[in-house]
Specification:
The chain is α/β, with parallel strands linked by helices and about 450 residues long. It folds into two domains: about 200 residues, Glycogen Phosphorylase B (Rossmann fold); about 170 residues, Glycogen Phosphorylase B (Rossmann fold, 3-Layer(aba) Sandwich). The strands form three sheets. It has a six-stranded parallel beta sheet with strand order 2-1-3-4-5-6, with helices on both faces. The radius of gyration is 29 Å and the shape is globular. The C terminus is likely disordered.
């Protein structure tokens, strides 16, 4: 009987599903006959409609109003409140999840979303999960504790920086593995020329070409950027991938039908050959989501980052620090950057050389080989009785509370609070002398002497 690997993810943006799909696609190409791999959107599989609605509403709102995700991210490194929210939302979901695991009986599970990591962690701590457990952190250069669990067997990260940070936060380094970011095999480096690709995609074959792409949801200020390019009378071809944003597509098609000066617009909706469009462009404009960044760089194209959220800050810093892309904050800055790159092809060539020096490749194959090595000879663990599970649950809750208390107590904020409290106590104990009061003893009305301040 073959082995069974499940990837648990959810359709909240594309960042959680894309790495799982890349690894699944690579597994299919490797053709292991003794292992079956599934990518499971648990939001759909468990009928978690309310959970999906809440998370998707929050995420789409955060894309439009970045302070929402920034506020969440500042507090996410301590997962206490997030776990409480997960437990509340999971009152009806967790029993269905247990039934799903009983029915499917996976030998190895990989979680790419923190909610399911917390559910699996709970089941594992009480001995009710007999599968090998793996966390895959979709952020390559950021390691918030919310994504990980010391109860899991392995944690997969995509940079030495991420590995070192999470090891400092208590995840055993012996259970951390570093890989290159998993890009789909279908996104492999294109070898055809730009001219050939552009003709195939029905684009203008000559001229400087910028590809605008803001993720599968197509949420970004594209219209402002294009308006600025038209106002500056830039001489370039602009290709826009609108994704699932049909309203954006209709608006841009209307704009393209009117006067746009020397800016030539090519509008596309949701496409399945995005890698061809990236390779056909001179530069890609978008946000610094890890999938978009690595899909662009694997094609050898530099990236202009127009915006980033809090969870994408470290990826942005990595792009700029390695001189494989630029950051522009406003439509005017973007228009200035595009004008300069259109006039200076040597700059594009320099950044392409920088990309080459990184020696990037898709890490999906190495991840597949690692997971296959874990599962091929694995044996199911013995599950504990319900009574033992309840006792373990109690102990796990107590231990988790103690661990969080220690993390708070040892945090820099608490250290500063203790220092401030100590300083105030010292001020109260050693009061300054009153300049109006004589240091010598003064006679009282009753003829007695009153000792001066500080006298023994």
């Amino acid at each position: 009987m073959g082995k069974h690997i499940d990837f648990y993810t959810i359709d909240i943006g594309g960042g959680h599903i894309a790495p799982a799909m890349a690894i699944k696609e690579q597994f299919d190409l490797l053709g292991y006959r003794d292992v079956e791999v599934h990518v499971v959107n648990l939001g759909l599989a468990l009928g978690a409609n309310f959970l999906r609605y809440v998370y998707r509403f929050y995420w789409n709102s955060a894309l439009r109003y970045p302070p929402l995700i920034n506020a969440f991210y500042r507090g996410a490194d301590n997962p206490f409140m997030i776990k409480i929210i997960d437990r509340i939302l999971g009152i009806t979901i967790l029993p269905r999840f247990v039934q799903y695991l009983e029915r499917e009986k996976p030998d190895l599970v990989v979680s790419t979303y923190f909610t399911f990591t917390h559910y699996l962690e709970l089941l594992k701590r009480v001995g009710q999960l007999d599968a090998i457990t793996v966390v895959l952190n979709p952020e390559p250069f950021d390691s918030h504790y919310i994504w990980f669990s010391p109860a899991f067997d392995w944690s997969l990260v995509f940079s030495a920086k991420s590995r070192d940070e999470i090891a400092e936060k208590g995840i055993p380094s012996s259970r951390l593995k570093v890989f290159q970011f998993p890009v789909k095999p279908s996104f492999g480096r294109r070898t055809e020329s730009k001219v050939t690709l552009r003709r195939r995609l029905q684009l203008e074959s000559k001229g400087f070409t910028a590809l605008f792409f803001f993720g599968a949801e197509g949420l970004g200020p594209v219209k402002k950027y294009i308006a600025s390019a038209i106002e500056r009378r830039l001489d370039l071809q602009v290709v826009v991938i609108c994704g699932r944003n049909e309203r954006l597509r209709r608006d841009l098609e209307t704009l393209a039908a009117g006067p746009t000066g020397t800016v030539r617009l090519a509008i596309r909706g949701y496409v399945t050959n995005l890698a061809d469009y990236i390779a056909a462009a001179d530069v890609v404009v978008g946000k610094s989501g890890p999938n978009q960044v690595f899909e662009t760089l694997v094609q050898g194209r530099p990236l202009i980052i127009s915006s980033f959220l809090a969870n994408e800050k470290e990826t942005t810093n990595w792009v700029i620090g390695n001189r494989v892309g630029w950051l522009t904050r406003t439509p005017s800055q973007l228009a200035t950057r595009l004008a300069k790159l259109a006039e200076r092809p040597d700059i594009i060539a320099e950044y392409q050389r920088n990309i080459g020096r990184l020696k990037l490749h898709a890490g999906a194959r190495e991840i597949c080989e690692f997971l296959y090595g874990l599962v091929k000879d694995s044996k199911r663990r013995k599950r504990v009785t319900v009574a033992d599970a309840l006792r373990k649950l109690r102990d796990a809750v107590v231990a988790e509370g103690e661990a969080i208390t220690r993390r708070i107590d040892e945090s820099e904020g608490m250290k500063r609070l203790r220092e401030m409290a100590g300083s105030r106590l010292e001020v109260r104990l050693v009061r300054p002398k009153n300049p109006r009061e004589s240091p010598k003893a003064r006679k009282t009305e009753g003829g007695r002497t009153r000792k001066g301040h500080g006298a023994p």
